[in-house]
Amino acid sequence: MAIEDVIFLGAGASASEGAPVQKDLFSEFFRSEDAHTRNPESAGRLNRFFREFFGIDIASGAHGLIFPSFEETLGVLEIAIDRGEGFRGYSTTTSAPDVQKVREDLIFLIALVLNRTLMEPRGYHGTLVKRLKGEGRLTSTAFISLNYDILIDNALTELHPDFDLDYGVEFTNYTRGLNWRLPRQERSVFLYKLHGSLNWLYCPTCVSLTITPWEQRRAAQLVEEPVACLECGMPTAPIITPPTYLKGVQNFFLHQIMRKAEAMLRQVRRIIFCGYSFPDADLLVRYLWKRVELNLGSRPEIYVINEYPGKKDELRKIEKDRYLRFFRDKDRVRYLGMTFHDFCEHGL
Known about the structure:
The chain has 348 residues and is an alpha/beta fold. 41% of the residues lie in helices and 16% in strands. The protein is built from 14 helices and ten strands. It is globular, with a radius of gyration of 20 Å. The model has no long low-confidence stretch (mean pLDDT 87).
């Protein structure tokens, strides 16, 4: 069935389920007991990192501290790794991979926080998927997500065997019959995760990808005990990449997903942004939308759903202006006063 609608999921969609918003991610981690008892070595490195990089003293208590965002923190480290450069006291050499260790600690951090805060989600993603199924529109709807959590993944997986979840990439599980199988074309629902996912384990040795269904906590376990690749037995790591002004998509699988998302978006009738404020840092995503907009075979309607209790009028105006100044067909951009929960239950 041809794809008619694409639902684009930003951080606000996960926040509606109970996940912390980006600015609260680090304070949420350091307030928890898990931060120090689950892996004290990792927590100690992060304490030192935030003190030496940002002048933040965790020992004084996480409450009230102003942390940088997860994306800008991880972005600084990834640029250093890409350039083979380090910082005083933080090397990128093979003999002293300090920057790489802190990067792994940050992934451990986000996995731990998301696993804890989303243990009992409110179920909005499940409501959305069930509504689409009941309307007979699930296979004509595709999802694009910038979120690392697996809320929408699990909601779609629950519909198996009636429907299969298709991420647009191949997993080692396909050939080994382990927890996942090749999606059936006529029953597939597409989910393209442009920034990676906490349940994808990447092997840089044989360039393969393994999925651990239902388990975003596996990323946190990797810090304690690395998971071996199913193909070659070497250590794996979750695919997590932040949006930055400078960094492009270098991972083979994320590049593949980006291309498939672009090809799909050229044919759709409606694009529905949920919980996404269109931040300036998402330059690569902006590039994707501009390529799509200028190479479209049709002119889709664009709906923006990002309302939530307590939102200020000033912020609404800033977000609306971002969308309107970016998209060429401004008469087709509709900024709705609707929450993600409302959309999940009732649609447009």
